Amino acid sequence: MIIKYTLPARLLHWLVALGIIAAFALGLTTDSMEGFSLQKLKLINYHKWLGITVLGLVAIRLLWRLSHRPPELPAQMQPWEKQVAHYTHMLLYVLMFAVPLGGWLYSSAKGFPVVWLGLVELPNLMDKNEELAGTIKFMHKIGAWTLVLLAVAHAAAALKHHFIQKDDVLKRML
Amino acid sequence: MRRTALFLSLLAAGTLGQAQAAPADPAKSSVKFVFTQMNVPVEGQFKKFAADIAFDTAKPDTGKVNIAVDLAATDAGSSDANQAVQMKEWFNTGSYPKATFSASQFKPLGGGKFSATGQFSVKGKTANLTVPFTVKPDAKGSWYEGSFPLSRLAWKIGEGEWSDVGAVADAVQVKFKLYVAK
Ligand code: HEM
């Protein structure tokens, strides 16, 4: 009998994963679009809405995680392997907050408020500042790439557990 | 065009005993606007304009106002948008570099408030426009301030795909603050 993560933890895990992939793809798409068009304007706004949704889900996820202990890692794992897994997960949480918050900060720096789903106007995180905006965008980009590459490594580790170690690490998140 | 208007207003001032038309101080004056893009309010500014104002609160019906905005110097909120706004679909500044407003009908609305009715012209279209404003004198001059919604579609600002009011709302709030020294 496998001891799985709780259902909310599993749901949030996959929703956030999907959200990050989609937001990343949208971000790369709008960034490669030249000039200014209606299409670009819409995609940037969808990207912002999606990113804020991810931020909200991550906040709920963290609260859930702090109040629900995940199942123990397999006993046959080396202590250093458990450490690596632990720190990767911590860093993923940090980036899952930092990347969308950085996007929100960038939007504020450019003088564009965030109106989630076109309905809820969020406060600006800073005053308009064109000089800083470029730096913040660069950090948003580096953060997003780090998050996605780390998530890929994280997924590779899960697959290694499943197909090579043949343990329950992947199954308990399904 | 503006020269003639100014000339005419000076002529009128001379013959009818009107207040002398005086230019607004560009350092203290501003013409800003807020447009709504996918429900997101974005602030912009017309950075270059000339305003000549002759207005006496005691004799509003003798007033005259001429404003000319240099549309090429529009800050529409971002560098992308600043370029876009010059294009055919928006201001088409290549063919229509200026927006002008010249009013000579004034009505007191009470409480230091007035309305100016005149011809507003942008992108080759001229039509009547009424603009509310307040006058606040200080020791060295007067502040003329007001804010009003302008329908961008009525003047074809944002054509083609940009006529979609879901993407950019029709109403653009224009906010002006003009200072004329005595
Ligand atoms: C899961 C969260 C997010 C991820 C993975 C993500 C990823 C990205 C990526 C990869 C880019 C392209 C950067 C570049 O190549 O220069 C980008 C751009 C951008 N992001 Fe995000 N982002 C997220 C959340 C947000 C949020 C919450 C906002 C704002 C509320 C935001 C606002 C922006 C903006 C305005 C751009 C620039 C778009 C452009 O000018 O084309 N992002 N994002």
From TrEMBL, chain A:
Primary subcellular site in the record, as a coarse category: membrane
Keywords: Cell membrane, Electron transport, Heme, Iron, Membrane, Metal-binding, Transmembrane, Transmembrane helix, Transport
Membrane-traversing stretches: 12-29, 49-66, 87-106, 142-163
Topological relation to the membrane, as annotated: Multi-pass membrane protein
SUPFAM superfamilies xref list: Transmembrane di-heme cytochromes
Gene3D superfamilies per UniProt: Transmembrane di-heme cytochromes, Chain C
Domain Cytochrome b561 bacterial/Ni-hydrogenase: 5-174
Top-level division of the source organism's lineage: Bacteria
Coiled coil start-end: none
Cofactor (UniProt): heme b
Subcellular location: Cell membrane
UniProt similarity note: Belongs to the cytochrome b561 family.
Protein name: Cytochrome b
UniProtKB/TrEMBL annotation, chain B:
This protein's name: YceI family protein
SMART domains tied to this protein: YceI
The organism of origin for this protein: Chitinimonas viridis
Keyword flag NAD: no
Domain Lipid/polyisoprenoid-binding YceI-like per the UniProt entry, residue ranges: 21-181
Taxonomic lineage: Bacteria, Pseudomonadati, Pseudomonadota, Betaproteobacteria, Neisseriales
Alphabetical keyword list: Signal
InterPro entries assigned: Lipid/polyisoprenoid-bd_YceI (IPR007372), TTHA0802/YceI-like_sf (IPR036761)
Signal peptide: 1-21
Keyword DNA damage: no
Top-rank lineage group of the source organism: Bacteria
Pfam family, one: YceI
